[in-house]
Structures are given as structure tokens and as C-alpha cells.
Amino acid sequence: MPRQGSWGSMELHNNCNTRASFDISRSSSLAQENLSKSQRIRNKSVDFDDNLPHAENPRLIYINDPRRTNDKYEFTGNEIRTSKYTLITFLPKNLFIQFHRVAYLYFLAIAALNQLPPLAVFGRTVSLFPLLFVLCVTAIKDGYEDWRRHRSDRNENNRESLVLQAGEFQMKKWKTIRAGEVVKIHADETIPCDMVLLGTSDPSGLAYIQTMNLDGESNLKTRYARQETASSIFEGCNVLGLIRCEQPNRNIYEFTANMEFNGHRFPLSQSNIVLRGCQLKNTDWIIGVVVYAGQETKAMLNSAVSPSKRSKLESYMNRETLWLSIFLLVMCSVVAVGMGLWLHRHKDELETLPYYRKTYIRNGRENDNDTNLSLYYYGVGTLTENKMEFRKASVYGKDYSSSNFTEDSLQDDNIRDAAVSSRWKLKSEISVDSELMNFLHKDLAGDERIAAYLFFLTLAACNTVIPIVSQDASSGHGRSDSWGEVKAIDYQGESPDEQALVSAASAYGYTLHERTSGHIVIDVNGDKLRLDVLGLHEFDSVRKRMSVVIRFPDNTIKVLVKGADTTMFSILARDTEKDNLIRQVTQSHLTEYSSEGLRTLVVAARDLTDAELEQWQCRYEDASTSLIDRAAKLRQTAALVECNLNLLGATAIEDKLQDGVPEAIEALRQAGIKVWVLTGDKQETAISIGLSCKLLTADMQQIIINGNSEEECRNLLTDAKTRYGVQPAHRKNENSKRSNNPQNGYFEIPDDAKSSNVLQPCSGKEEPDVCAPLALIIDGNSLVYILEKDLESELFDIATSCKVVLCCRVAPLQKAGIVDLIKSRTDDMTLAIGANDVSMIQMADVGVGICGQEGRQAVMASDFAMGQFRFLKRLLLVHGHWNYQRVGYLVLYNFYRNAVFVLMLFWYILCTAFSTTSALTDWSSVFYSVIYTSVPTIVVGILDKDLSHKTLLKYPKLYGAGHRHEAYNLQLFWITMIDTLWQSLVLFYIPLFTYKESSIDIWSIGSLWTIAVVILVNMHLAMDIRRWVFITHAAVWGSIIITYACMVVLDSIPIFPNYWTIYHLAKSPTYWLTILLIIIVALLPRFLFKVIHQIFWPSDIQIAREAEILRKATPNLRSKPNEDSS
Questions:
Q1: Ramachandran region, residue 386 (left: φ > 0; alpha: ψ -120 to 50; beta: rest)
Q2: Which intervals of the chain are annotated as region Disordered (predicted)?
Q3: For 731-777, what is each residue's pLDDT tens digit?
Q4: 3-state secondary structure string, 195-255?
Q5: What's the CA gap between 458 and 306, in Å, rounded?
Q6: CA-CA distance, 994 to 472, in Å (whole number)?
Q7: Whether the Cβ atoms of residue 327 and residue 984 lie closer than 8 Å to each other
Q8: CA distance 707 to 541
Q9: Fewer Cβ within 10 Å of end Cβ, the chain: N or C?
């Protein structure tokens, strides 16, 4: 029993390193809405007792009695629905979502007005076509995506599993499984719902699961059935009992429940439950009882509904659309009032006026050419490879640096024989230090030899790694026949650190190749060593170490410990001067390893006396089965044996970063982007990765918030604000309005600045601040109290004052909650990038999924997908910049090109006694936006580039143009509208004055206006194009040619009132001179404004463009003298 208890405790706490995200990215929120806030378990360690957190309303599960389970309680079935629409709700719901865009409402109103005969501009069907086309295309896209979700749901719900029915296991569809039923899962099958384990194929109740579909991690995790039920299942007995568990909640790290079985009540924890979406591995079968099904499973509750995302530019465009709608209403009101006054003044003359005969008024129409406004639409684990490599070791005060393993390095025949005779082959190659290998195989005696032996024994034994042994097909020649075939061994574990250490121990001759519930077997240079595991104390954030109590074959008891140096050195024995010397040397080695970005651990051990063992066993058994303060009692018990340790050495592991991660993070910082890390990893792991990728630096002041209660969190936040002088958010906003904050990456160019002073390449060095930069490190336990209480503002104030924020041990929805905190309290855009964090990616304004070994859940839910984190640098600094510049300019340009057309017609109405007549044909009004001016807009929106990708990557601060809204802002909008007003006046009055004394008819002047406005808006666009290619030339100049061609065709049709007008106009030089004069006069103010602004107030982008041009011109200038001399 002590062995069973000790193994149970070993598995009890080692399954928290998960970052859950389910492959189904969107789920219905119906189940979540039914859960009151009081029923949602916080994401923290809950030390449960018989009185559950929901004792007032626990969920009762009668094992193998689904009818009784579901009679009293209305539990949901196991059918899931992740789709957004049904056949009934698709049309209204989809239209409701689409009409969130103000522009859609605007065009809907215009189209509705056009259906009224007195207000119709042109054909009713034609006016509906643009809006209906866009709505239909979007609806078809949304419908197809939702059909795929329906298909995925159908396939998922129709999968089958074995369910106990009428005394035997029979296949049953997943969607019909109910709470209380007993389900059997075989190896490599997927878990259909959340189940409490009753038994497994292993007599001790152990099971191994893979959670890749949940958290993206491929490492195996251990779960176990209680011995009380596992033995009954294994013996074939029927299991009946009652489980009292908490109500459904999103907390994937905790499960609080009790089970009544055979008259006994015992607790259940997270280690006793397997969640939907996991896969069974290395275990023949498991049997469990369903406690949560369908939408109530933890995986589905953690699948947030995908929100509708809108870019800032779209919100700004909505604002400007409202302004233009107001202007349009004013213009219509002016025309209506003016026409009413004119009619009242000339009512006696109306019968004689051809345009105002009463018959015409009855059948008249109002010409509102603003319907021609075109619609424009735009859319706007992660850091590391998770591969640990054992790099260096300090053994008993001596440093060993790993180098490539070669046969030549084995100088001693005994060493070579020992290495060759090994029958174990690791799947991954491990480089070893030849000096250390020589040392381990020498026949030495004394403390140094014992320390090296225990050092590697600790690496092989003090862990929860699972060895997986298989026959190696490529067994090498020269192996000793006594060993038989060479076996390949692979290690699976929740922690990549542990895997790396165990693999390193195997490479040095200490191979862990068997693990059961109560013992482990280690091959020590060919000799099998069986060690009984009496108990294991898992790593936790308080102790920051891990220990295992081992009984050796000679009945000696040792405790083997490994942990962080910050806590290990304080519990070492200080008996002799030699111990102190070894300690000092090891500390210097650790400093050296850490400075290289390696992850370090200290290894120690000591013997236990019989009295110490008896005391520890008694306390350990009580603590591991305690229902109150279990974690605290286990820490107190560990302190009994984790003391007076003998230092053995230290290890250094490299967590290999993805290529280019430090450079990408530094570039993002220089671009003015604040980088926050939200991870489910342990705090120490997260900090280590932060140091490796240069996210955290040595000069940063770390603010660590680890609270276990609301009051403690409040005190920690208050102390941090007081100590570091953190201002409230509103105060900081006021200060930021007065001056730009250089820490945000914004920079202004002084009047006398030179391009060489402004554009310095990204060197990775920043000017030291007066105060050291701050880094906030906070755990998920603290976030539970902060996000659910009134401490959000305190956290927000501190977080926004820090250069780096690192949140560790956070659940998936906590990540989404942090993103929502920033979105709700600031106007900043948020970008989330991850390999499996679906909820966070969906919550952010821009979601980026990493496509890798973790699966494609994040990719399916993201806006953009990429293979590695380093590509984010190019996505943001290059494509993000290009997209912002293009979209910002084209929004203004589309407002301009339609407004100048409408205002030109408005001036005509004012000069024709508010007659609402039109000088343009209906076809000209339609073709203006559809054919004449649309193609250049599309081509420029796709191909135009203000800067090359090399320049944008070299100078990350150029990305700050988007932060400062340089391409699109309210000031630019009004300047554009003033320019539009001027151009419309020029367009209207120059032809009017030119042909004032002539007999030209209204259709001829309308033809002139049509071609003039098309040439004008294309020349306006040509002035702003930065990158001319063949397609750009073809689009801009080709659209003018196409306009002439269309007008020739239209004017050749006899039934049209403008028949043959273009032929008469084109013969006159006045026609061509008038067009030329319109272009020059209309664009001259804009040209002068651009020249003056670029000379006296150049932007960063303008300076960078000039630098690019100079760089291109310099080789040409240098080549000319060479050509002349030759």
C-alpha cells in the first residue's frame, strides 16, 4: 500500500502543464449561459474536502445507472454543435452580422430610395446589383464555412465507442452517450467525453494519454484509476457507486469530486479524469464513467464563440460614411428647399417653362447620383521548438562541456567495450563529453566517484518520464550476443526538461528502461538496478524542486533531489570546507551557464535513517490522502527529507529557440509593439524561455505577482504600484498626449534632422532609460482573483507601465480574458499568435496561427497562418505596413473619386434652378464606378508599395507610421474633402465659362464632364502611386482609353439623347484644351501642397524613400566615370 500511495501522489500533480485549445474552434454558448457565475470554478489549486465548492448543488453521477443519473438532473447529451447557423437562422443572422458595416446600411438606404419612382436615378434592378452582389458573395462564403462545420459536427457525433449495456460492451454513437454510462476505450482511440477512470489494463490503474488535440503537446501524460475501483475492474467485478462532482466548468487544471464505493468515500482529483479529445496511448484499454458530456465537457466550454472582427480603419470609415451621409442629406435638403422656393416664386410661369410643366412634375424624377458611390471592402510554444538538449554539466565541482561523440575520443579499451556492449539505442542522438565519459568508466573510489554515480542516477530516477522500448531493426554489428538484439528506447514525459535529462543519463550509461507503479529499473553500464519508489514529491512553484525517495537493493534509503539553484543551495549541508568549496565552484558554473541562456538545475542527495524514513512515511501517507490543505501538507512533508543534502552537481539544458526569434522580438519592440507572453508553462520555464529569446533582459526589474487570495493579490499590486511609481491609466494617457513616449517606439523627426540621423538600422541596442525597464510576471492563480474581482484596473495600470508582461500557468480562457482586458480599456490593436490557443486567437483583433507539430486547431481559427514565429516580423513590418498604407490611401481615394463626381452634379443642379435634371446619361453614371475608375483602384490596392521590404525590415521604426495614423486620419479626411470641393468646382465651372458663348447642348457638356472627371481622378491617383510597373501603367492609362471607347460606343447609338456628341466635340481644339486646363488647375494646389510638405516636413517614410532612391542612383553615378574613362 505505501507503494501504491506513493505512485498515486506522483501522478497527482504532474498534469498541469497544459494549454488547452480544442480542434473545434467554435462552440455554442448555450451550455455556458446556463452556468451561473457562482458555478464556474476558478483556475487555481483547490484543496477540496468532503464539502465540495458546490456542495449546495453537486452533480450526482450514479455509476452504470444513466437512467437514475439523468432522471432528476437535466444533463446535456453528448452531441456537440460548433456551427454558427441553421437553415432557419442563416439568412436573418447572416444579414444582421453583415449590416454591422455602416456602408452597407448607407447603400441599402440609397437602393431603397431608388425604388421610389419620383426619386429613382436609374433602373431599380441596377441600383440593387452592387449591394446584392456583395451580400450574396459574403453569404455564400459564410454558408460554405458553416456547412463544413456542420459536416465536422456530424462526423464527430456519429463516431462510435464501446458502452456497457445489458452487462456487455456494445458499440454506441457518441451523440447518444449519456452521463452515468460506463465507456471502454482501446489504445489509440479518442476519448468521447469527460470520464472518471474506473480501471485500466494495468493492474495498478495507470493509463497514458496524449493531449495533442487539447493543448498541442505530443508528450504523454499519466492518469490513474483509484485502486479501490481498479482492482475490481481488473478482476471482472461489476462496479456500482456514486460520484459527487462539481458543476461543469472551464477549469481544465482541476477536478474536484468524491466517490462512494463499497461503503467508503474517497476523493477524486484531476489525475483521475480523462477529458474529451484526448487519445489513449501505450495502454491497451481503460474503463471510465461519464461525468460531463457534449457541450458541458471542459474542452467545449473552453471553445469560445468566434467574435466578429473589425479593423480600426473600418471603424474610421464608418465614421466618415456617417459624415458623408449627413452631407448628402444637407445637399438634398438644399436642393429641395431651393426648388420649393423657386417653384413658389415662379408658380405663375410654370406652364410656359419646358422643364417645369405640371405633366413633367408629375412624372419627374430626382437625380441623386450619390448612388454611384462605389463599395470598397478590405480585410485586414510559439517561440521555441520545444526540443531540449543536454549541453553542460558540473559534477562535484568540475565543469564538463558537451562535445561531439566520436570513437577516437574513447582512448581506453574498457570504455570502448562498455559503450559497444550497450544494448540500448536512443531515438535521438545525444552528444557526450569525452572527458566525463572517461571519468565515469574509471575504477575510482571515494567521494568523487560516488557523487558522479548518484548524479546520473538522480537524472535517471528523479522524474515522471515513461520509457518506451521497441526492437531496433538496425541492430549494429559487434554487439555482445549475451545481450541479444539491440533495443531502441524513447522517452515520453510531460516536461521536455525531464526527457532531456533522462536521455542524457542514458547516453552516459544510466538507462531508465522500466517504470511501474512501485519501482523503476535502470541499466547502469550493463547491470540492471531495480529501485523501489517509496514516494515522489512533485515540482511546485513554492519549493521549486522535485524529490524521490528510493530504496536500493541493499535496503539503503536515499532521497534524490533536483531543483532551482535559488532554493537548493539553502537546503545543502555545510559540514566541511570541501563542501563549501564545491558549492562555490558550482555556483560559478551556474552563473556561466545562465549567462549563455541555458536552463539550469542543481542535483543533490542524501541518505535517510530508519527513523527519518518512518516519520516521513507516516506524514507522507496522511498528506497524500488528506482532503484539506493537501498541497501544503505535502510541502511540509517534503521539507522533512529535503534538508542537509549533499551537493552532487548541476545541469545545463538548451531549449532551442526557433530560428530568428530574438531578432524578431527585438524588431517588434523597435516597431513600437509591446510583447506579452501568455503561456500555460511553469513560471520558471516561462522566465527561462523569456531570457533565451531576449524578451527578458538582465537590466529589467521583475515584478512577480504570485497570490493565493484576493487580499494577497491586492497587496502585491498595491506594493508594486507604490514601489515603482506606476501612474493610473488616465494619467498616463494625458502625459502621452503631451509628448510621445520613446519606450513605445514612436519617434519624431526634428526640424534639422538628417536622414542619416533618423534611419539607423536595428542594432538591438536601446538608449538606457533613467529608470530600469519593468517586466511583470504573474501566474494564472493570481489572475483568477484579479480578473474576477475589482482588481482589473490595478493590473492594467501596472501591465501597461511594463515593457514586458509574462503570464504563466494561465488557462485558455484566461488568455482570452487578458486580451479582452486590453481591448476593452484601450484603443490599441491586439495581435495574438500561438500554436493551439484558439480562444485567445479568436479574441484578438488579429489572430495568427502557428502551423507545426501541435496540430492545426489554431490555424483553422486564425486570420493568418505561418510556419514559425520569425515570419511574424515580415508579416507585420512588411505586409502589415504595405496593407495599411494601401488601405488607408484607397479609403480616402474612394471617398474622393465619388464625392468629386457627386459635387460636380450638385453644382449643375444649383445652376439649373434646382431642376434635378442631369447632364449625364444613366449609363455614364453607372459606368463611372463600375468600369471607368474601378480597375486602377484595384491594381494600386494590390501592387503599390511605398518602400521595399529590405528597407522596412532594416528600419523597424517605420512601422510606427501606422501607430501615428499617418496614412488615414480625420485631418487627412477633411483635407481630402477640401481638395475634392476645389476640384469639383474646377470641373464644373471651367467648361461652363469656356463654352459660355457657344451653342453647345447639355449632352455635349455632360460628355465633356464625364471624360474630364475620369482623367482627373486617374491623374490624381497617378500622382500618389509610388511603384510603377507595367500593370499599373496599363490600368491607369488603359482606363482612360476604355472610357473614350465606351463613350464612342454609347454616342453611336441613335436612341440615346447624346447621339454623336463625342464626334462633334473631338474635332474642336477647345475641347482638348479645356480638359488640359481642368487637369492643371484642379491638381495644382495638391501638387504644391505635396512639394512644400515633403521639403519642409518630410515624414519618416518620405526620408526612407529618398534614401532608397539615392542608394539606387549611387551605383549609376559611380559607373559613369568608369564608362567615360574606358
A1: left
A2: 724-747
A3: 555 554 444 443 333 333 333 333 333 333 343 333 334 467 889 99
A4: EEEEEECCCCCEEEEECHHHHCCCCEEEEECCHHHHHHHHCCCCCCCEEEECCCCCCCCCC
A5: 47
A6: 94
A7: no
A8: 12
A9: C
The whole-angstrom distance between residue 295's C-alpha and the CA centroid of its chain comes to 24
Query: How far from 594 is each of 398, 570, 650, 681, CA to CA, in Å?
Result: 17, 19, 12, 19
Contact 831, 845 (CB under 8 A): yes
Q: Record the cell numbers describing residue 555, joined without a space.
A: 535496503
Pairing of strands 285-292, 182-186: antiparallel
Residue 163, beta-bridge partner list: 170, 183
User: What is the residue whose three cell numbers read 559611380?
Assistant: 1118
CB within 8 Å of 644: residues ≥ 6 apart: 571, 572, 573, 606
Residue 673 is classified by DSSP as -
Beta bridge partners of 169: 164
User: Is-contact 165 172, C-beta < 8 A?
Assistant: yes
Lowest mean pLDDT among 235-249, 309-323, 685-699, 1110-1124: 1110-1124
Q: What whole-number distance in Å separates Cα of residue 817 and Cα of residue 972?
A: 35
Q: At 260, phi and psi to the nearest 5? A: -105, 120
Which amino acid is it at 449?
R
Position of cell 547502469? 524
d(CA 1040, CA 1046): 10
Under 8 Å between Cβ of 892 and 965: no
Rounded distance, CA 253 to CA 45, Å? 8
Query: Of 527, 494, 488, 608, whose CA–CA distance to 211 is shortest?
Result: 494
SS3 track for 1046-1075: HHHHHCCCCCCCCCCHHHHHHCCHHHHHHH
C-alpha cell at 292: 460531463
- What does the alpha-carbon distance between residue 500 and residue 493 come to, in Å, rounded to a whole number? 10
Residue 986 has pLDDT above 80, yes or no: yes
Kindly give the pairing relationship between strand 701-705 and strand 774-779. Answer: parallel
If 0-12 CB within 10 Å is exposed, 13-18 middle and 19+ buried, where does residue 1066 land?
middle
Rounded Cα gap, residues 639 and 636, in angstroms:
5
pTM above threshold 0.85: no
Q: Report the C-alpha gap between 668 and 597 in whole angstroms.
A: 21
